[in-house]
Amino acid sequence: MSILDIQHLSKSYGGAKVLNDASFTLQAGEAVGIIGDNGAGKSTLLKCLSGATKPDTGNITFNGQPLKLGNPHAIREAGIEMVYQDLALCRQQKVLTNLLLGREITTPWGTLNHAAMRKLGSQALAKLNTDISLDDVVGDLSGGQQQAVAIARAMLGNPKLVILDEPTAALGIKESAKAIRFIQSLTAQGVAVIVVSHRLQDVIATTSRILLMRQGQIAQMFVTNNLTANELSEAISQ
Amino acid sequence: MTYSSMFAKLSLHQLALSLILGLLVVGLSFSTPYFLTPQNILNVLMASATVGILAVGAALVIGAGSIDLSVGAIMALAASVGAVFGLIPDLSGIWMITICFATGLAVGMANGTLAAKTTLPPFIITLATMSIARGLAFILMDGKPVYGLPEEIVFFGQGHIMGIPMPVLIFTIVAVFGHVLLTQTAFGRNVTAYGDNPAALTVSGVNITRFKIMLYGFSALTAVLASLVFMGRLNNADPSAGMGYELTAITAAIMGGASLRGGRTSVVGAVIGALIMGVLQNGLNLLAIPSFYQYVVTGIALLVAVSLQPCRSHV
Questions:
Q1: Which residues of B touch A (CB under 8 A)?
Q2: Whole-number Å distance between alpha carbons of A4 and A57
Q3: Whose CB among A98, B178, B263, B273 lies 3.0–4.6 Å from A92's, allowing a Cys bridge?
Q4: In terms of pTM, does the model score above 0.95?
Q5: Do residue A90 and residue B197 have CB atoms under 8 angstroms apart?
Q6: With contact defined as beta carbons under 8 Å apart, do B164 and B42 qualify?
Q7: Per-residue confidence (pLDDT) for residue B315, from 0 to 100
Q8: Band of the pLDDT at B4, cuts 50, 70, 90?
Q9: Which of A93, A103, A106, A142 is the best substitution to test chain B (most B C-beta atoms within 10 A)?
Q10: B177, B189, B201, B209: which to substitute to probe chain A, counting the most A Cβ within 10 Å?
Q11: What span, in angstroms and rounded, lies between the C-alpha atoms of B110 and B107?
Q12: Range with lowest mean pLDDT among A104-118, A221-235, B8-22, B285-299
């Protein structure tokens, strides 16, 4: 059953058509990669999916319901979470504060329910099997650990789809491996994943299908079994 | 410096502040026999109350990476509008107080709305509202203070509850409320989170407009309470009230550990900062040092406070 159905999405800025009749579907629990050269339309597609931008035409059906396009709050409520490239973390604050930012649990008197928040935070971190403590300050964590915090925060909304924008772009080899493991754990929990990345090897490692975007369209589809980064690289440069 | 060691340094910073306050008290006790008397300690607390109340609001605003320069002018405008309505026969003091709160909150909410809905920096917004509010206060009062206020307002500055002077009591309540608001509520978490990374709070689904209106609204609320204390103590409504107080309050908050970059602040620190400023001013008065030197001391205290702050490293 498809959880996400994108049909004929188009978006123009001025005279430039940056998204041109893009269509694709995503199955529940499936991980799909989106690749393409700069200007291929990846970012605009992400913005349409997160609600940051409203497409000119087309529609998106999510979990059987039409999405309210251009409304980030409604899209999040529907069960789509976004992990941004810069992770959108507060680096001076503790892990717990970051995990529950905007989702704080309060007592009937309006004060923070610390016990309930710690319990929820611990559960979120446990799902990713990390050694991060709720009391760690995010700025002191490694890049991979910060990625884990961002993913754990996304998972707290019990999403059905998590979109990751360049999840390994700022990470070294060792930290990328950690981040890949965290992304793989999402699909293991039945969550659909979209990974947008320039790091082709990492996209192959985390997804089962890859969509190549060119001139605002979905130009080609690859199954990642036995696929190499070179093949993808050649396809992009064609 | 790691972020966790920065937290440790913040606690250390507050400890150092307490030590500085203690040293000041000891030093002044030996310098003048008039300092360590019950009446003078009460004077210090009373004098610190106005700036201290403002410093609590400043601590929150600065923690959110913003600044509110309008609080001194809000003090004056609230007093002036209240005084104008106070001329209406048979209007009770309670109504006058309500009008003061409504006036202050209106300016605070305007600050918050402008900060949320425009791209203007908070410095410019509150500089503008400071000028507008101060100007309106002078226009309303024709530049002159009004003497003889209703007893309900005088009570704010001269009244006592269980032997505790009202300014000290209000300062304490505002400080406790501000501390709880900052450390024990979702709003408080949002304050430091926004100061740390505004984008993080935005994508977390928090209503930024409502957040900013609440933030500047709280700051304005502290300004109105400070204004009531100020009016009550002097038994007048003065359009020049609170002039320059915003800088002393900001100094106290920064001295207390509020980072101008946002993301880190402390109400407890701001309270200690306000007390240090109060003790300094009182000490200078007792030592018969001309009041003009107090501006110099305030400036030096600000420089020392900023240079003592735990800093983030640039990685």
A1: 2-4, 6-7, 180, 184-186, 189-190, 192-193, 196-197, 199-201, 203-206, 263-264, 312
A2: 17
A3: B263
A4: no
A5: yes
A6: no
A7: 31
A8: low
A9: A93
A10: B189
A11: 5
A12: B8-22
Structure tokens at A101: 């930012």
Residue from B278, B240, B276 nearest B256 by CA: B276
State yes or no: pLDDT of B312 exceeds 60. no
Is pLDDT at B245 greater than 80 in this prediction?
yes
* A230 contacts: CB under 8 Å, gap ≥ 6: none
Q: Which residues of B12-33 are buried (b: 16+ CB within 10 A; e: fewer)?
A: ebbeebeebbeebbeebeeebe
Count CB neighbours of B169 within 10 A.
17
Structure tokens at B221: 């609320």
Q: What is the pLDDT of residue B6?
A: 60
Length of chain B: 315
For B204, which residue in chain A has the nearest alpha carbon?
A102
pLDDT tens-digit map of A128-158:
778 899 999 999 998 888 988 998 898 888 8
pLDDT in tens, A161-186: 999 988 888 777 877 888 888 888 88
Instruction: Indicate if the pLDDT at residue B82 is higher than 80.
Output: yes
Looking at the complex, report in whole angstroms how far the Cα of residue A160 sits from the nearest Cα belonging to chain B: 17
Q: Which residues on chain B are in Cβ contact (under 8 Å) with A101?
A: 189-190, 193, 200-201, 204, 206
